[in-house]
Design a protein that fits this description.
372 residues; alpha/beta; Spore Coat Polysaccharide Biosynthesis Protein SpsA, Chain A; 2 domains; 3-stranded parallel beta sheet; 13% strand; glycosyltransferase activity; Hydroxyproline O-arabinosyltransferase-like domain-containing protein
Length: 372
């Protein structure tokens, strides 16, 4: 099952494989891990270990590096479907992109929503969008994220992108601070996910990244998003990313172990196969409710449910007396003016809800669009 880089038609070279579908579920609970109760909420190391170089952008020298790279803008690209659930998230994301893209320190260039549903939708005139085909019927095995690498292959082949760099983003990203171009030299910028652990799963990883390719530490603990990368590198990696995703999905043990993050591991492996290492920025993104403070972080990723009792205590895994969970709005957008969290809830969660409320109050026809 291979995809080759071919400007004529990459799709014609894709070989179909069938496997049992992957059921959707409460994957959110899979990622329940032990976190710190203070600070950033996630413990990482600054040493050059299996996590690779961890960069903290409050370092003055590193901020100067980013400022020097800012003359080279990056294109913001988000992959999405035409489902209501994806649409309302993209509308909020684009609202905040528009708010911060021209602020001092921003390296943001143009924006594209890459719609991998195969047909235009009602947001084409609101958000700059490009329609690509989904994988052939049945090939995603019910795992819709498999369409992401295939979407990038098509988009990169069929469009002329002005910027030299690309930010791969997701619909549930909100730009909380203007994002600089974090790339330094030819090394892409990525985010270290605490649950992506190549060394822990070396036996599985070696099926796709043999020992002859190098040590397991060459596989970064990342997904494809958020990543800022040179366009030319992404053009090289993307077809391999498609193939590794399909191969991992076709391997029962790997599929069962990696589950919803399979495509993230596939990107990490594909990058390593091309000899690409990422500089890891732990403040690239924050993830409420685990990360407590916004500080100098750049993106809020609201994938986790935020559940609290009225005392402001986290009740994760149990529906709280107050909650914000994007999965509560699978068939239509959240209402305007969501209630703010009770006293004692971390700043990150308050900021998230406040930003959602601002977006929904100002986006035209918020209540009438994006309903299934």
């Amino acid at each position: 099952m291979t995809v080759k880089k071919n400007k004529a038609s990459a799709r014609s070279i894709l070989v179909l494989f069938m496997i049992f579908g992957l059921s959707f579920g409460t994957y959110n609970l899979v990622f329940m891990m032990k976190h710190n109760k203070g600070g950033s909420g996630v413990t990482v190391t600054d040493e050059l270990g299996f996590l690779g170089p961890i960069i903290r952008m409050h370092d003055e020298k590193l901020m100067m590096r980013a400022a020097n790279s800012n003359s080279k803008k990056f294109h913001v690209a988000v992959t999405a479907t035409d489902a209501a659930y994806s649409q309302w998230q993209c509308r909020i994301m684009y609202y905040w992109y528009e708010k911060v893209k021209d602020m001092p320190g921003s390296g943001m260039g143009k924006f594209t929503r890459i719609v991998h549903s195969g047909k235009p939708d009602q947001l084409m005139d609101e958000i700059p969008s490009f329609v690509v085909d989904p994988l052939p019927a049945g090939l995603d095995r019910g795992y819709v994220v498999m369409n992401r690498p295939w979407a990038f292959v098509q988009w990169l082949e069929k469009t002329d992108i002005e910027e030299e760099y690309i930010l791969m983003a997701e619909p549930d990203h909100i730009f909380v601070n203007p994002l600089p171009n974090l790339v330094y030299g030819n090394q892409p910028a990525g985010y270290p996910f605490f649950y992506i652990k190549p060394a822990k799963h070396e036996k599985l990883i070696r099926k796709f990244y043999p020992e002859g390719n190098g040590p397991i530490t060459n596989v970064d603990p990342i997904g494809n998003s958020p990543v800022i990368i040179q366009k030319s590198l992404l053009e090289e990696i993307s077809p391999t990313w498609v193939n590794i995703s399909l191969q991992m999905k076709d391997d029962p043990a790997t599929d069962e172990t990696f589950g919803w993050v399979l495509e993230m591991y596939a990107y990490a492996v594909a990058s390593a196969l091309h000899g690409v290492r990422h500089t890891l920025h732990d403040n690239f993104m924050l993830q409420p409710p685990w990360d407590l403070d916004v500080g100098n972080k750049f993106i809020i990723h609201y994938t986790y449910a935020c559940d609290y009792n009225l005392k402001g205590e986290l009740t994760y895994g149990k529906t709280g007396e107050w909650r914000f969970n994007k999965r509560s709005y699978l068939t239509g957008p959240p209402p305007k003016n969501l209630s703010l969290p009770p006293p004692g809830v971390p700043e990150s969660v308050v900021r998230l809800v406040t930003m959602v409320n601002e977006a929904t109050a100002n986006i035209h026809k918020w209540d009438s669009l994006n309903k299934s």
